[in-house]
């Protein structure tokens, strides 16, 4: 039996509400929906659909807001953008220009961050399953630190570092057993999650790491989950426990220079009221202020989520019994979040006239051969003839980065908008690229 669609106890926000809460978007009475000063219809005409579009102004504004909140809280802090949220070279490069480093979780992301202009001294390598090859690459590049998530990983890093004649700067990721009260698939701070080591085990393991050849422990790290929208109570509890751990480690004579506070601050997709950067900075200061440690943050979604839209075109509208289906040329292989997390994304028509037309409930779906290829159910939308354009909002995080080529569908193009100009930052994949690298065995003739 199919899982039920999420049920909300408040009406869906209307088109005007969705626009009012997203400063990069506006409606021109002639050109229709605009991203900054560029009509989205112009982007679709130039690069086809589906296509991702990112607002440079939003990226800069949100990076600046977070930096200001940390500075005003009196915190010695650095920000390392979670590359997994959006690994586009243009996005990472723009944020590097705003003074952000990068948090990476694979050698591919490390390569991308370096290619985008992030200095190695600004890169943190996280993740529970780093290979020996990835560790070697990180040490060769002399990145800022590797976050270690187990005693077993510490032993492997020690072995790799010694074999290279290097000392590996590393932090121990602890699991504070704090419930972030977010979706079960993106919580990371409970004992049942695979991440980090239980905080009660941290003092012993940190001491062992300090004695391991080739390791240079410099601090501790934590990340309790993603899309956290229930205030900062979970953060405050986690950071209080980290502060206690810092004091315990220092009392035992161990150096603790940095505390990586993770990320996870949520955004408002529908009507959520996530905490502000100022509230997060306050929680950090309450738990870790006065300890003379360098604070590190790893935000991803909060910075880039509101910066992006996914443009799609209507293929057909289909009436089936009592249900109206709007079938798009975008699918779950472009935007996976609704299928994977039951996530809600605002959907706006691009044509100006459609904003004022009568609406009726519609299921918005893609062409992929899965019933889960459904973006929205019973969404109030105007009539949308074939080739009408719609925009999925807040699609800048975990959109393109989670895309696939399922059903042999090429990856969509990506565009960056900056004021009145826009540029292609990733070409649309062609069908030949889907087959590139494949081989038929010689016995097939």
TrEMBL record:
Catalytic activity: meso-2,6-diaminopimelate + H(+) = L-lysine + CO2
EC number in record: 4.1.1.20
Enzyme class: lyase
Gene Ontology molecular function: diaminopimelate decarboxylase activity; pyridoxal phosphate binding
Signal peptide: none
InterPro entries, per the entry: Ala_racemase/Decarboxylase_C, DAP_deCOOHase_LysA, De-COase2_CS, De-COase2_N, De-COase2_pyr-phos_BS, Orn/DAP/Arg_de-COase, PLP-binding_barrel
Modified sites of kind N6-(pyridoxal phosphate)lysine: 84
Family recorded in the similarity comment: Belongs to the Orn/Lys/Arg decarboxylase class-II family. LysA subfamily.
Subunit structure: Homodimer.
Name listed for the protein in its UniProt record: Diaminopimelate decarboxylase
Gene: lysA
């Amino acid at each position: 039996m199919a899982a039920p669609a999420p049920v909300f106890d408040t009406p869906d926000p209307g088109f005007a509400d969705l626009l009012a809460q997203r400063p990069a978007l506006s409606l021109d009475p002639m050109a229709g929906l605009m991203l900054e000063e560029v009509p989205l219809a112009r982007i679709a005409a130039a690069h086809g659909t589906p296509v991702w579009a990112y607002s440079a102004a939003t990226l800069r504004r949100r990076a600046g807001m977070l930096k200001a909140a940390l500075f005003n809280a009196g915190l010695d802090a650095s920000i390392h953008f979670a590359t997994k949220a959006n690994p586009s070279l243009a996005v990472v490069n723009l944020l590097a220009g705003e003074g952000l480093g990068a948090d990476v979780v694979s050698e591919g992301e490390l390569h991308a961050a370096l290619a985008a202009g992030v200095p190695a001294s600004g890169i943190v390598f996280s993740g529970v399953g780093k290979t020996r090859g990835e560790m070697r690459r990180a040490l060769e590049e002399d990145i800022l630190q590797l976050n270690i998530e187990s005693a077993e990983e510490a032993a492997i890093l020690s072995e790799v570092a010694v074999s290279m004649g290097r000392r590996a700067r590393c932090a121990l990721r602890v699991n504070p057993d704090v419930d972030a009260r977010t979706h079960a698939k993106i919580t990371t701070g409970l004992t049942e999650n695979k991440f980090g080591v239980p905080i009660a085990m941290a003092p012993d393991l940190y001491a062992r790491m300090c004695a391991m050849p080739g390791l240079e422990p410099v601090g501790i790290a934590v990340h309790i989950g993603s899309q956290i929208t229930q205030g900062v109570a979970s953060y405050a509890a986690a950071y209080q426990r980290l502060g206690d751990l810092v004091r315990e480690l220092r009392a035992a004579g161990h150096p603790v220079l940095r505390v990586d506070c993770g990320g996870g601050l949520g955004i408002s997709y529908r009507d959520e009221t996530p905490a502000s950067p100022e509230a997060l900075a306050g929680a950090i200061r309450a738990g870790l202020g006065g300890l003379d440690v360098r604070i590190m943050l790893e935000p991803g979604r909060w910075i880039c989520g509101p910066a992006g839209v996914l443009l799609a075109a209507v293929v057909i509208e289909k009436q089936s019994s009592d249900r109206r289906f709007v079938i798009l040329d975008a699918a779950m292989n472009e935007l996976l979040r609704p299928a994977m997390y039951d996530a809600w994304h605002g959907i706006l028509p691009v044509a100006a006239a459609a904003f004022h037309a009568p609406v009726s409930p519609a299921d918005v779906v893609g062409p992929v051969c899965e019933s889960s290829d459904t973006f929205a159910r019973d969404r109030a939308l105007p009539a949308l003839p074939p080739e009408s354009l719609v925009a999925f909002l807040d699609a800048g995080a975990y959109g393109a980065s989670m895309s696939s080529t399922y059903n042999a569908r090429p990856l969509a193009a990506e565009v960056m908008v900056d004021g009145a100009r826009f540029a292609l930052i990733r070409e649309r994949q062609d069908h030949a690229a889907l087959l590139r690298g494949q081989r038929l065995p010689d016995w097939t003739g």
